[in-house]
Specification:
Layout lengths: L1 H18 L3 H38 L2 H16 L7 H15 L3 H18 L8 H11 L7 H9 L9 H25 L1
Helix pairs in contact: 1-2, 2-7, 3-4, 4-5, 5-6, 6-8
Amino acid sequence: MINVIWFIILVFGIGFGLLTGRGDVVSKSVVSSAGSTVDFVIKLVGLMCIWCGVMKVAEKSGLTEKLAKLLRPVLKLVFKDAAKDEKAMGAIVMNLTANMMGLSNAATPFGIKAMEEMDRLNKEKGTASNDMALFLVLNAACIQLVPTTVLSIRAASGSQNPGEIIIPAIIATTVAAIMGIIFCKILQRYF
């Protein structure tokens, strides 16, 4: 559906520009925006490579494992059935730890593994369990200790201080994660 909407907007914009005699402005805009997009993407890819390297060093140094050890007791209180299974809990902890450290590419396989493990524990096959729904919410609203993507976009866009969003990001994502847990627990009682 979104493809249709974008197509209509583009056709309408280009058609309007041509009908009003501004075809040259339309073509200049297309060329300049294409050039600036390529420039932005090249900057962004370079910065993302740097951040992925930094996060790999954090992973290899054991920082993510230490964070996982801190998270495990808290998550055992939050998850009901998955807390009883070491494989499911391990995958959940590693997924959330990787997300917290900005390693979203590394988090994806752990997220898939966590869902598979929770599905193995699920008594109603084909229906998401409460733990699965809660994990999905926590995965989407995960606390970001290092918001690498946003930092990279800000730096590539020429921000004077791309890191100034770290503290607000930690606060906002922490509130989102806590509210997600609270709403999941409330909804679990009624559905």
